[in-house]
Design brief:
Elements: H1 3-20, H2 23-34, E1 37-38, H3 39-46, H4 51-63, E2 67-75, E3 78-85, H5 93-98, H6 101-124, H7 145-178
Antiparallel strand pairs: 1-3, 2-3
Helix pairs in contact: 1-6, 2-4, 2-6, 3-4
Length: 207
């Protein structure tokens, strides 16, 4: 395998390792996906020991391109540097096709960082397996080109179904609130993906 093909994998593994190696980094990254922040501001919001503590972990995240410097401002004779998560805008199929492979990889890495961070925080809070009807499914498959396209359409329909579930939930919660009842809000992260992998040697077409 060439250096060109292993480099993206190494960058992803390195970023994941740095991100997950310390709980502070997970919390910093999640906060910076919502809004930009400085070391002092993030230390205050997240209850960290000091701005220096936050700054150290921000530097580690910046080194693996998980966060990046945004703007800054002078404060009491010093400079307050702000950071934000290295995000990529949501794009449609046509725009996606126009992106360079490197840009598509950056977007994919960003979303994977979000998913892993969400899972890690849920584990830390003892919530991931609290509900018996939570869902975690991994399904290896072998399909042809037509089947791959069908999976894509299946995920599109699934996304629309999710939005409809959210809308119906909001309507029920508003109705309960109007009667003075408990809104019973449950914060959820819903993820979905399918992607090509190397063929299993034991499968037809494998090595």
């Amino acid at each position: 395998m060439s250096a060109e093909t292993t480099a993206p994998k190494r960058r992803l593994e390195s970023a994941m390792g740095v991100l997950l190696s310390h709980a502070t980094r997970i919390r910093l990254f999640q906060e910076l996906t919502k809004r930009k922040g400085s070391a002092s501001g993030l230390a205050r919001v997240l209850g960290l020991p000091s701005p220096k503590h936050a700054s150290y972990h921000l530097e580690q995240l910046e080194n693996v391109e998980v966060v990046e410097k945004a703007d800054g401002r002078p404060v009491n004779g010093s400079y307050e540097q702000f950071y934000c998560a290295v995000a990529r805008p949501l794009v449609g199929d046509e725009d996606w096709a126009d992106l360079a492979p490197e840009e598509r990889e950056r977007f994919t890495r960003y979303v994977l960082h979000l998913i892993v961070t969400d899972c890690a925080l849920s584990f830390d809070e003892g919530l991931f397996d609290r509900r018996l009807n939570r869902c975690l499914i991994r399904t290896p498959m072998v399909v042809d080109e037509e089947g791959f396209a069908e999976l894509n359409e299946l995920e599109r329909r699934g996304l629309q179904d999710r939005y409809e579930v959210q809308a119906r939930s909001a309507a029920r919660m508003n109705e309960r609130a109007s009667r003075g009842e408990d809104r019973e809000q449950i914060s959820v992260i819903s993820t979905t993906m399918f992607f090509e992998v190397a063929p299993d040697p034991g499968e037809p077409g494998g090595e």
